């Protein structure tokens, strides 16, 4: 069935989205809220930073519809038709990460209110950073009860821990290749540690950080968002989920953004839930099939099929709803 264009409001923002209903059914159907990953990623999973078709969330909506499950996906603030809403560019980062969690909560309310939707069978499925939003939403006191939670290629550690690991690895690689003097590398590592301490201490950043850190987003205008997102520990949120809640986690050996070790630790925190852990061997971060080659990021927009490993596991998990 074709998408139905829809809008809902969150604060001062009107968010534009797509409601996908399954083929003709005899009564109210379960429904899933789909949450995109980081950056300017739209309702389909496409990014303004990568000029091409990624389509991960559109693929999820299609798979859900085939399983008899409706879905809502939307252009979050800063992406797609929603754009910046009533804000100027310099205002958006200062809104904080809670803006995205609030929007997801309002989206779930909007989905629950749609005709022929079973409000007692609501799923929340987040991809990448969207999985963190899904976790925060699932434990919120004022959100509708969630019947199932999908955490696909999830952000599985605190944000600043992940960024510290990634940046230090890049610094080590540059030193090893002779592209960065050891003295400058040590200065970068020290500045990064101090930036993390400042964000976790009082939620601020100095404006004189080295250029490589500023280019990585460590600038004062982003401080509120970074601090708020880092304060959401995925493992602590996972441990707070209701006992017996059906949860799916997915991770692939070819995903260069998420490690199996991190998802192992997230799975351990999910021990009280009804957990399905889906491990794949040939999918990239956006769930496309890349075989045994290494993912470079360029493969995200290649015309590739979506992972058969993921599809089979996802469909089997959906069958319980």
From TrEMBL:
Q: Which GO terms describe its molecular function?
A: hydrolase activity
Name used for this protein in its record: Alpha/beta hydrolase family protein
Any idea of its EC number? 3.4.-.-
Q: Which UniProt keywords apply?
A: Hydrolase
Q: Which domain of life is it from?
A: Bacteria
Q: Which InterPro entries match?
A: AB_hydrolase_Est10 (IPR053145), AB_hydrolase_fold (IPR029058), Hydrolase_4 (IPR022742)
Answer yes or no on keyword Ligase: no
The beginning of the lineage is: Bacteria, Bacillati, Actinomycetota, Actinomycetes, Mycobacteriales
Residue ranges annotated for the Serine aminopeptidase S33 domain, each copy included: 59-154
The enzyme class is hydrolase
Keyword match Transmembrane: no
